[in-house]
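Summary for the lay section of the report: proteins are chains of building blocks that fold into shapes. Here we show the chain for NADH-quinone oxidoreductase subunit N and then a coded description of the shape we predicted for it.
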Amino acid sequence: MLPSINASLAFNTLPVLLVIVPLLLSIAAFTRLLSIRHQLVIGIPLIALGNATGAWLVDHNLALVLDGWLLGGWALPIGIRWALEPTSLVLLTLTTVVAIAASLSSAGDRIKRHEYWTLWWLMWAALNTLWLSRDLFNVYVALELLSLSAAGLVALSPKDPYGFSALRYVLVALIASLLYLLGVGLMYGTHATLDIDLLSERATSDTLHAIAALCITLGLMMKAALVPLHSWLPQAHSRASPAVSAMLSAVVVAVALYWLWQLWLGPFKMLSMQPLFAFLGGLSLLWGGVNALQQTQLKRLIAYSTISQMGYALLLLSLSTDASSHALAQQGATTLLVAHGLAKAGLFLAAGYLVFYHQGDQLQQFTGSAYRLPWLWAGFALCAASLVGLPPSGGFVGKWWLFMGLWEQQRWLSATAFLLGTLLTAGYLTRVIAIALRPAPLPLATACSYAGLLPLLLGCLAWGVGMTLAIQNGYLALPSIDRTTRYFALPALLIWPLILLWQYRHPSPPSRFFAGILWLTALFHVIALTSQDWLTFYTALAWLGILGWLLILHGKASTTPQAGRTYLAMMLVAEVLLFAATASMALQGSLAFEKATFASLSVATALLVGGGLAIKSGVLGVHGWLPIAHPAAPALASALLSGVMIKLGVLGALRLTPDNASAVTAGEMLFYWGVLAALYGGVQGTFSGTPKTVLAWSSVGQIGLLSAGVGILLLVPDNDTLRTLIMLLVISHGLAKSALFIGAGQWGALSGRQRRIIGAGMTIAALTLVGVPFSGGLYIKSWLTYAISTQGFAGELLTFASIATAGAMLRYGWLLLKQPAADAPLNTAPLVSRWLWAGWWLLCASAWLVPLIWQWWLPYPGSWMAANIKALGVITVSGSVAVATLYRCATFQVKPITLSPLTQFPWRQATRSRFAWRVERQLRHWPVIGVMLVSVSSLFLIIYL
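The coded shape description reads as follows.
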């Protein structure tokens, strides 16, 4: 008896706590009966209690809250019904969290105008009403209340002193409300009820319903700021105070979109307007993203981002409700709204504090700001990462589920717009972060403030949503160590401790932020190595791509900014490809490695996976970032990028090619392409102008050699010897290349005896890459040549790759010898320097010796001495030719062919050729708004007829 009484009590008090309390507080604020502090102390706990009560009711008495409340006791179809369903509960919770954070931010900003708090509580009450209501006219009343209170809050902002933005907001909202009311009137005249559930049962697809649907849809589209009816939003959101902007962007526009879902998945479902919403959703995604990319003011950038992000949620209505994936897509769209609301509120709150601290909204004013306000920018970065969809954030889970629906229903144009929108989102948000990470022109002083905690908290919540859903659905498997992990972990165990210790004892560069990024990179590298499912592996790859970009930005070369942009652009393309592949793999079956193989995947999925992994590794054809980024990065970062991080693409290929997999015929093409890459990388390295560029091109060649081996493995996946040789090559190349990059980075600071000692170590590492007699490199390449030849392929082609590598290594040594020696030793602490160099020498020696250990377990099948004699002859001939060639070319520069660095996006040129800006200005004119209404209506009628 007691539980039923408690349920009844909770059921009856829910509307009071969620709606009546904020209405009473609005009256108290208007009449000044309560101070602002007392309003917050009373209102926030009571509304939060109401939200918690609703959650308890949904969990324990779902049927009770679905039946809902009949206001005034009037029965349907005349009465007005409120109800609480799981989707509305989730969005109600979002409203509560964001409104509490925004209220605390407003109180912290000492906003004491009672008019402000009157409208604030009124807006909160209207939002809660919209989540609870099931009556279309009640929704109209709440929308009017919401629009008037939101416009009033915008008008109170000091950034809108004359109220122009607020007035435009009010006029647009008035037109939208009239359109909505016209549609509601048509529906009531037809069915004599406005309860959405009853309308869903009675509605048909005749012309009258189509006209009503058109009017209501146009009204809600204007309120949701969907392109092309969005022109009011950028000014209103960017000029409002930070807390108001957070509410407007996180929940006010979301509630209009929510009611579009309710209507088009309910009463208007039979009208079949999926093409219309596919077009409008894609248009909002791309148009909002392009305009955000061109902004020079932070708040306007975030405002345009809202327009773009709403396009994702609208794509839900482009899907057929009959497909099996629609329910998952609907969950994804809801998750996306929640994650977007949390992240966008965090971004606007962070932007408000940044504008206040820097006394301006121009992006260039935030140069170096990340070092002054680290916690604030940490919150900004977390929110931005969720908005982009970096796994396993809430934004990623929502996008992933929604994209699975698009993929299963083969909505290829919408899927393409979806992926392009993700690239645009990453582009404009990383641009802001890159500006904040630039070296500051003035001495830095860290500003300590609790204001940065709210964005950080909201960002953590956005990530917590995604991680909770991923764990609940069993997407993430526990880490494990297997045979493949042990092979790839061996170079990591030698490289990572040395680099972390080097950065600690001899910082290069001297930056705590760089050191922190190194530790994070190490963590995600471990996750990648020990992952047992594709999603965990993809998560680590995505994070390592972003962290690699941050490492490159610490380089001191003049080309570092361009190199960072080139690297980031390529990595983002790889993330998008792997994201689409992950969705497709999930639809085809399990994400566990033992069940997901190249042979079992569809051709499209295999191409997506292969393309993403190829970019990550720097395979020929998509290698353009590698010879640009590696030379520009700090030496320690280059050692990591080339020594361990690019090998993860090979690890992914091996994971998807287990011993029991079927053969893949594309392996033959990959073999020859890899051999070509090995030759091309060596030749380009031979004619490069700096030591680090030579090493970068050499990495392209070595990745080509690994690609050739993987190609043969795809044809014979049960060949354990070949698999072992590929992993040994990973070990040898990783150790040698890390040692060479570190040596090249420190070479300019060495002199005399130090140069001779370090030069000897680099000689060992370089000769290992070439494969000279009695080295581990020769053992691997000789074995690899034999294994490939036994499969009927021209294994001897690898000999030419060794010759090309020899030329590159000779060029590397020549360029080092030309560098002038330092006047003083590198380190005045001999003991520290000696231990660091001892660890570095261990890398060089291990690259030579470790592969030879396998001679005991995997003896070379032919004559080992004959192989060494043959290698000696090849090295002698090729070395002579290379020396002659280098001597001949010493008097002139030969520029290697490479992908040009991505030039900086023409932000300044936008003042001369800003097509999107001109269009945006035109869209603000009232006649143009009318034309857009007619255009959308015409498109609607064309599809309907």
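Put simply, here is one thing we learned. The chain has 37 helices and two strands.
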